[in-house]
Predict the 3D structure of the following.
Amino acid sequence: MPRSSNNPATKAASVTLATVARRAGVSPQTVSNALNSPELLRPETLDRVLRTIDELGYRPHRAAQTLRTRSSKLIGYGIRPTAPGASAPVMDRFLHALSQTADEAGYRILLFASPPGGAGLDGYEELLDLHSVDGFVLSGTERGDQRQAWLEKRGVPFVAFGRMWSGRQIGDWVDVDGASGTDAAVEHLVGLGHRRIAFLGWPRGSGVGDDRAEGWQRAMRRHGLPVRGRRAQSVDDIASAQDAVGPLLDAGATAVVTASDMLALGCYHALRERRAVPGTDIAVVGFDDNPMAALLSPGLSTVAQPLEAVGRECVRLLLARMSEAGAPPERVLLEPSLVLRDSTSASDA
C-alpha cells in the first residue's frame, strides 16, 4: 500500500493510535492489540490494522519488530520533577551511564514524565499499552512507593536504582551503600584528629538520608564520640542548609559531614558568613561528588557514587529478569568512594 506523504518522519510524528483506529475502522484497543497481542485478533482484522499502520507510518519498524520478536528493545525510565532552582547532576550522570550500557546491549531508553505518587503509574500503563516496552528502570525509590508492587502484579520486568525503604522487598535493585560512605568520611576525620564531628542531613523519614545518617552515627559510636546535639536537618537547599548548620557550629563542631554536596555548599556559606574558612577552620565533607565539588574554593571533599557501575548493573539485572522471570530477586549494594580535597584538614581540637 503506497504512502501518502513524502516525509514519513514528519507524518509519523503527527499520527496517533486514534488516527490509525479511525482509518482502519476499529477501536484504539484493537490497534493496541495488533501491536502488543496480535493473537487476540482475527487474521483479517490484524491484516487491516497492520496495513493501516504501514500506510500512515505509525511506528512501522517498532511494530514490525514487536510482532516478530515479541521484544520492543525499549526500556522505560520515568523522570521525576526536580524542585525549582535545583539541579540533578547525579541523576543526569546515572541516566547517561544507563543509556550507554543499554545501547551496548541493543536497547534504547524511552524517557517519560513520572510525577511522584499514584498518578505516576499512568505513564507506566500507557507505555505498556502503546509502546510495548520490555521493562522499566526505576529511581527515586521512597517509602510508600507503589511502582514495584504495581509492576510485579502485572508481571512486568523492572529493576530499581535504590532500595525499597519500607514494607516487603520486591524485585531486583541496585543501590549505593550510603552508610558506608559517611562512615568512611567520619573515619577519615577522626584520623585527622577531629572529635566534634557533626552531621547535617535531610529530614528524617527519607530512606536515602536516614541511611547516610546511620553511617555517621555508627562510626561516631565506634570511636566513642558523642552524637547528641551533633545532628541537624535541612531540605536540599543552600539557604536552608546555611541556617540549619549554624547551631552545630555554635556548639563547637570542628567538622561537618553532610548528606549531599548541596548541604555542604550551605555549610560553606555559613562559614564564610562567620569569616571562617572551610578546610582551615572547619572541615566539611559532602556526598555525591557533584561536578561543582571540584570547582569550589577550597575543593570539597565528598563521597562519590559509582554511577557507571550502577548503570551497568541495572541493565544486567533487567536483562536477566527479562530472560528468566522466575529467578530469585537479586540485590546489589555498591561501595562509594571518598574523594579527598582541601575542605578536610587536621584539627587542633
Remarks:
- The chain has three domains: 8-69, 74-177+307-336, 178-305.
- The chain has 13 helices and twelve strands.
